[in-house]
Amino acid sequence: MDDLEKAILISFDESGTIDSSLHEVLRVRYSSMGPEEKSFVRKSVFSMACFEAIDDESSVRVLEGPAFIKNKLAQGATVIDMFCRVLNALDDELISLDYPRSAEETAVAARVKDAMRQQCVSQIVRAWKILLFQWSFLDEVLPSVFYVMQNCEIDTTFSIVQFLSSYVATMRSLSPLREKQLRHVGQILEVIRAQIRYDPSFRDNLDALDKIGREEEDRMVEFRKDLFVLLRSVGRVAPDVTQVFIRNSLASAVATSADRNVEEVEAALSLFYAYGESISDEALRSGSGILRELVPMLLSTRFPCHSSRLVALVYLDTIVRYMKFVQEHTEYVPMVLAAFLDERGIHHPNVNVSRRASYLFMRAVKMLKAKLVPFVETIFQSLQDTVAQFTTMDCTSKEVSGSEDGSHIFEAIGLLIGMEDVPLEKQADFLSALLTPLCQLVEASLLNAKVQNPEDSPAKIASIQQIIMAINALSKGFSERLVTASRPAIGLMFKQTLDVLLQILVVYPKVEPLRCKVTSFIHRMVDTLGTSVFPYLPKALEQLLAESEPKKMVAFLVLLNQLICKFNTGLHDILEQVYPSIANRIFNILPREGFPSGPGSNTEEIRELQELQRTLYTFLHVITTHDLSSVFLSSKSRGYMDPMMQLLLHAACNHKDMLVRKIFIKLIKDWCSRPFGEEKVPGFQSFVIEIFATNCCLYSVLDKSFEFHDAHTLVLFGEIVLAQKVMYEKFGNDFLVHFVSKGFPTAEVHQSTQKECDLCTLGPRGSSYPLCAGRYYGNDIEALKSFYQSLIENLRLQQNGSLVFR
């Protein structure tokens, strides 16, 4: 055995008889070794590192060897050095293009790289993280990291992004950053920019937004998320370096060749947009660093590829993101307006860009508002063609679906001309120029529909729908105070418009989209016109009530809820007029004993009825909490008292809706006086004491399905106890005695419960429900809850799983 073999085997020898080391032999002899010896050394060292046997005859492994070998491998600096050397060697032999390789060597390198991608990359990344957190510097490794990010597959890149994020996090404690870290920051930014670039081969698909384009855009949106998180982290650690990098990226992107210009510009703008999330509001407003240079550069640059959908969209999004800078530096307002109003924005040839620009312009107007007053007339004139196109475009196509349908341009105009800073005469002229032609179009359509079948023209219906949306959006810029108090002439114009649009319900009573749009406009006018909308409500409500399908009734009740919440008792007369019709429709279609369950019960029809029932409970609750319960007592409504009470009782006993008990509690307070007082509703007090109290406050709680450990159930229990407290306050011992005599005729209260009560009074027929519980009802609600829960739990133990008290 020569010295080389001895040196290798020393790792596995525990006798100590071999006195040379692998390092010594390699240092002296490696350069003179032949290929076979070098191969043997490589194989042996890799076997040691990989916990493998050296040959078939020995199964001894490094972790079974002497302690000093394991200690040597555990020394941090040595391991880092070894790890870096291995990675660099892999780069030299497998990846680097600086070394010529034969065809066979290239094929071998490809196989090794493929195998590493499948088996080793995640392990290498984990090792990087461990080393990073323990030693905080990886100068030797980072070049390989950057190479992998630029050349490996997506899954690998995500792992490395997490690694780099961890590395950037360690820089937060370094202030200022050293030259080495600044260099790494620059390299990280370069890698991010390279990774977020779109593939030029998808350019046409992304512009047309066809199926392939949508899939690629969705993929990139998801893929970019982690990269942008990394960018923002870098931006917080090194804001100056990041801003300079973005500026240089924008400048170089503009100068790139036409075949790469689109992707380079889009990537640079996306960097600037994403970076904005890491900047504080104060820094945005003041323009810290070179933001004072970057934002004007963004506004003034006209990219040769601005016709690209992706470039145009991210350009406008970026302008809005940095709008707080413009708020403080109003000299740039004309540049912002130019970007939105010319072919870069609202007048962009791509309809998707144009509609998105309308939405973003509305957001910009909200932020700049009063600063735009000097430009109102210019803006208004610039948008005349866009306004005209909106009502004539093919609104039945899929292109106009979604929230960005183009109507936001009317909201933007409304916000501009609805300001009190705009003179009244100008304001009236602007509003009239918009509302008059729109109303004329509606009137002409309705007139033609009367002599034809009104439902045979989908295009005409869609056009009317567009007009309602436009007027609705326009009205959002006008406050109730302006149209009712300071400038009632403006309010009159909206009233006239409402009068025209209500005719749509007469001509098209069964066209659901139009009904929905008109209802939405009524909601808007309630907020805008205030009480001056009252004269128009009877006609509107009458038309909406003409249809009684569950979905339509739900929308109708929602509208009434808004009216009640806004006008309170001021709506009493109108509500008293319509409530009988509502009750007649709803109580005839809702089942009084609940909905079926089991197979076949989850139909669309049943779901619609359930939604109607939930909305009805809300409606009744809104009525009672706004002091309008007297509506139920009118001569025309009294006939619906019994079905309403039966429906509410069933829901209360089955814990279907918490609002139901609140309704009962409010009705008890409204309709029941102190004991021996005059009843507002004959028989209601008896109903509450004899039916509601026993069934809803006792029997339903005794059921084992009422689970006290459930948080929602505890809230319900609180409502039940509150109802008892209110009944005791209103009815005193009348309530308590009946509750005992009917609810506990044979029950024996547990001794522990009796001991809680001093001077317990036995109830009728030997029951021992403590009538002194009145002291709980008269005091703290929490004490009453605790007492009643303890009582219920004890009674459950006695009933042995059966409701013997009924």
Structural features:
single chain, extended, mainly alpha, 40 helices, transport, disordered C terminus, 806 residues
Please identify the structural class as seen in this structure. mainly alpha
The percent range for helix content is 55-70%
On the 0 to 100 scale, the average pLDDT is: 82
Could you give the count of β-strands? 0
Shape field: extended
Number of helices: 40
Largest beta-sheet characterization? none
Strand content: under 5%
Radius of gyration: 39 Å
Q: Stretches where pLDDT falls below 50 for ≥5 residues?
A: 7-14, 58-63, 746-771, 801-806
End-to-end C-alpha gap:
99 Å
Organism: Actinidia rufa
Pfam families: Exportin-T (PF19282)
GO molecular function, one term: tRNA binding
Function: tRNA nucleus export receptor which facilitates tRNA translocation across the nuclear pore complex.
Topology diagram in text:
Layout lengths: L2 H7 L12 H8 L5 H15 L17 H8 L1 H20 L7 H17 L1 H15 L6 H10 L2 H17 L8 H18 L6 H6 L2 H27 L1 H17 L2 H18 L5 H6 L4 H10 L8 H13 L1 H6 L4 H9 L9 H18 L7 H7 L1 H7 L17 H10 L6 H28 L6 H18 L4 H7 L1 H20 L4 H18 L7 H9 L4 H18 L4 H18 L14 H22 L15 H13 L4 H14 L12 H19 L8 H21 L1 H11 L7 H5 L18 H4 L3 H19 L7
Pfam family, one: Exportin-T
Subcellular location: Nucleus; Cytoplasm
Function: tRNA nucleus export receptor which facilitates tRNA translocation across the nuclear pore complex.
How would you describe this protein?
The protein is mainly α and 806 residues long. The chain has a domain at 655-748 and 777-804. It is built from 40 helices and no strands. Helix 23 runs parallel beside helix 25 (458-475). The protein is extended. The termini are far apart. 30% of the residues are buried.
